[in-house]
Amino acid sequence: MSAAEEVVAEGHQAVEAVPKRAMTLGTGTSLLVLAVLLLVPVFVKNFIIFQMTMLLIYGLAVLALNILTGGSGQFSLGQSAFYAVGAYTSAVLMEYFNVNYALTIPVSAAVCFGFGYLFGKPALRLSGVYLALATFALATAMPQLLKLNFLEHWTGGVQGLVVTKPDAPFGLPMSQDMWLYYFTLIVTVAIYVFSVNLLRSRSGRAFMAIRDNEIAASSMGVNVALYKTLAFGVSAGITGVAGSLGAIAVQFVAPDSYTITLAISLFLGMVVGGVGWLPGSFVGAAFIIFVPNMAESISKGLSGAVFGVLLFLVIYLVPHGARQIAILGQQFAGKLRRN
Amino acid sequence: MRFGRTLRAAALVTATAAIALTSGAALAQKKYDTGASDTEIKIGNIMPYSGPASAYGIIGKTEEAYFRMINDKGGINGRKINFVTYDDAYSPPKAVEQVRKLVESDEVLAVFNPLGTPSNSAIQKYLNAKKIPQLFVATGATKWNDPKNFPWTIGWQPSYQSEAQIYAKWLMKEKPDAKVAILYQNDDFGKDYLKGTKDGLGAKASSMIVMEESYEVSEPSVDGHIVKIKAANPDVLLIYATPKFAAQTIKKTAELTWKPLQILTNVSISVGSVMKPAGFDAAQGVLSAAYAKDSTDPQWANDPGMKKWNEFVDKYMPGADKTDTAMVYGYGAASTLAKVLEMCGDDLTRANLMKQAASLKDFAPDTLLPGVKINTGPTDFAPISQLQMQRFKGEKWELFGEIISGDVASE
């Protein structure tokens, strides 16, 4: 069996082919969700707004992974590293160069895109579990790299950096949390629309062709190496934006925030949300934010075990994650309409 | 009819006035901020119950048990303590989320004893902006003693730097021509000690320190480092290592039949988890400094304070491992908070809580060494700053010399 054949076989086992229309929500549903996201913050406490902001931020990071895995069929356990690079880019620019927070976000996106693209180059030679391992190494190395002595002047070493939270502009009468939420929401919607269109475009079709069958894709004239690294770059760029927003929302960056645990959480979020289903990213993000808290309220000493049981239930009952529930819901709605 | 209505109105006015007056008087006596009432004081806490530092989770459990004991005895000034503790998994973003939950959703009066330097750094600005006390943080970094910039944050344990300075001062006095080698953990903990030592030695640091060797916490063993250090032939070895590595160091030096003067960080002085595994023979003559009693040290068997601690553990944490120093730590920290709340009386505002926390005078929790006392003031936010030197002899630590104070102001 040649290496290429192996890739094909593994690709089929690991990532199920998702048709591109099934990757998004209908227009009506999307607008409804957006309306809810716009209105809810007016009625809830600042703490809930903060949690919703974190939900959008982690949702973006999961979305980025979804483009990479669900779109182009490549695995990554190293998303926490890109997230960290984005967070530190924003933090350093804001605290040392007094750059406006909103301007740091495109910079983070560019830096992370470059970083991801370059990392994608050597990673081309790897596939399946080997790629997962290589990215895993990146995630484990990142916190230590951030502690390096010659970077300490910028990164603050183990002590981390405190980030100032922005006020609402133009004297808008809203709290910092609410403004940050709406700011995050704007960025999220923009990136979501970009991602949906990306996957519907020629590049998106190329990603999916590679995911489904690399050899067939290349024989149809798809530049496999280019699109694979491009997928890595785009994914890293979006993760970097999420990292930037995360740093601003949490107001603090430190190496301990970006350990392998974060990468695994994001991976978990993707699986729970449904691999290849973009709206599921936000369901997955909700899972990784709220379920550990629920597990803790059930048992403090055994919170990890309770979380494990809940996760097991999800995987066992709905193996395709939130996408499966959405499809069931759709079928049910269709039946009702017919009746 | 008309008269009746007027009368009723007059009565109403009088009654309202009376209520206003009495409640006004009551307000003068009892003052509350969010999280405190006539019956309850709500205290928040975050701990790493899961994740890489989950071994410290026992501190939170001890504190929870301690407040249960206080409540069983009737509470503090008649109010029960409602201790709300959440898991932050030693992750700063999670710490921020959980602390915001404590403040904005659970509405606690103060956040007490949150653990870990990164987690505390992450929540410090938020709590200070909201003017919520961040009481007695569980970390040895020096930066918590900074009342000017962070008036709502106060430390508890002696800082690593001040402890290292005590060792440096002792060396300058007792062994001024020593050749010193330093083994330290390559993180904030180890680097704080390194800085403290150099500051303490001052101008002599460059001539006295012959070697600085660091190890990563992920390494399985430090044996290789010890062999390397021995080759430089120092006569004093400063061991700034966490328990596992400290035990390895003491054991390895003995195996090499090398006998430098060894000084060990207070973090790793547990008889049960360091000295015994290292071997009592190998550990003879090792020096360190302490501020709390060691639960595994037989010399405290009849100590009234430790007897109280033992009774507490037996009743409220049955089955817990008594050799765990975290339980001694949690007991000491919780009793400090209980003392401060008692001092607050009926004025349970956040400002008064902070004021009382900064006016502890010679408070001695059951678990601290005899003579070590907690003192704070408006410009001194480092509650415990005293330590006493000790030498390992036989199967226990022997205290010697005077209690030394080593306050280090934050830069």
TrEMBL record, chain A:
Subcellular location: Cell membrane
The keyword Nucleotide-binding appears for this protein: no
One GO cellular component, as annotated: plasma membrane
Membrane topology: Multi-pass membrane protein
Keyword Transmembrane helix: yes
Keywords: Cell membrane, Membrane, Transmembrane, Transmembrane helix
Pfam families, A to Z: BPD_transp_2
InterPro entries documented for this protein: ABC_transp_permease, LivM-like
Main location: membrane
TM annotation in the entry: 22-42, 48-68, 103-120, 127-146, 179-199, 230-254, 260-290, 302-319
Residue ranges of coiled coil: none
Domain of life: Bacteria
GO molecular function, a single term: branched-chain amino acid transmembrane transporter activity
Name under which the protein is recorded: Branched-chain amino acid ABC transporter permease
From TrEMBL, chain B:
Origin superkingdom: Bacteria
Keyword Cell membrane: no
Signal peptide interval: 1-28
Keywords, comma-separated and alphabetical: Signal
Pfam families for the chain: Peripla_BP_6 (PF13458)
Residue ranges of every copy of the Leucine-binding protein domain listed in the record: 40-393
Family designation: Belongs to the leucine-binding protein family.
Protein name: Branched-chain amino acid ABC transporter substrate-binding protein
